[in-house]
User: Fold this.
Amino acid sequence: MALLNILHYPDERLHKIASQVREFGPELQQLIDDMAETMYAAPGIGLAATQVDRHIRMLIIDLSEEKNALQVFINPEILSMDGEIVGEEGCLSVPGIYEEITRAAHITVRAQDRQGKPFDLTAEGLLAICIQHEIDHLNGKVFVEKLSRLKFNRIVQKLKKEQKKNM
Ligand code: GNR
Ligand code: NI
Assistant:
């Protein structure tokens, strides 16, 4: 197992669009395990492959306290969404920033598990928010880009200042 480096906004690699996973071999299994270790260490409740500079359609989520309920979504597709939910979101690629974001309240997602077996899942609440947040990453989108231009610009300025300080 290994800890992976998480890209930080505004790294342009966070804007890459991920491609379909076609092989479910040992390389993918290793990446899933390494991403899980990285997410738990952070700590975070979700992680998209994009965030560790692997541009394939794979994301992981674990909402449990005990960190023992890993959910793996490969080639996820949202089949339906309805309603609205507002929740405070954070992102491991945008450390220290927490903002309220409006998302669909109920979604049905189709994906494959780590063996490649397809499944459908209906989600609401934090799980629905998290799946949408992670699928956005696979499409090159980061949650701060959903904010007003004023809020977004302030955050980018702040992040650039932080980065300078840490050089
Ligand atoms: O750890 C995370 N917490 C979180 C909280 C509210 C909404 C979404 C998230 S996902 C985030 C981890 C992350 O950056 N995933 O891409
Ligand atoms: Ni994120």
User: Anything to note?
Assistant: Residues 78 and 109 are 4 Å apart (CA to CA). Strands lie at 46-48, 58-61, 71-82, 85-89, 99-103, 106-112, 118-124.
